[in-house]
Amino acid sequence: MKKLSVVLAILFVGILLAGCTSQPAEPAVTATPTAVPAVVETPVPTAEPTKEVVVVVVNKTETTATATPAPVPTHVITFTQDLTIIPDATAYVKVGTKVIWKNDDPFKPHYIDATSDQLDKYFGSTDAVSIPYGGSIEVVFDKAGSYDYTTGPFQPQVQAKIVVQE
Q1: Which of 13, 20, 52, 97 could connect to 93 by a Cys-Cys bridge, CB 3.0–4.6 Å?
Q2: Which domains does the chain have, with CATH numbers?
């Protein structure tokens, strides 16, 4: 009987403990907004067609006639890979002509060395002016005269001249 009362006591304590536990609370209900469909009125067809209004805005701007500058005449002197200068060593150009010394030799730089004081002023130096391979130098001659120079260093040194005429 002792065993029975011990079993009943344990059973009784178990029931008491089971009754003391709390039940999980119901989740709180949150109000969710729902979209209300917008009422769009359909236009009632009429016998008259819809009138369309077109507005055109024109901005007037003052135009001033500007003189188009005349193209600057150019003369190109080319150093080639086969150590020649094209065209010949003496070039005749008019005042205002842009003379371009162009190095088409893809392997070597070339130079122009002014031998007249007048040409030194255009190059800005009394030293030889180097033209890197693929590069060029441009000078616009604004005064008539004869401008002597030599070329080098790879082709045979050429005594060359630019003659600027009125």
Answers
A1: 97
A2: 74-165 (2.60.40.420)
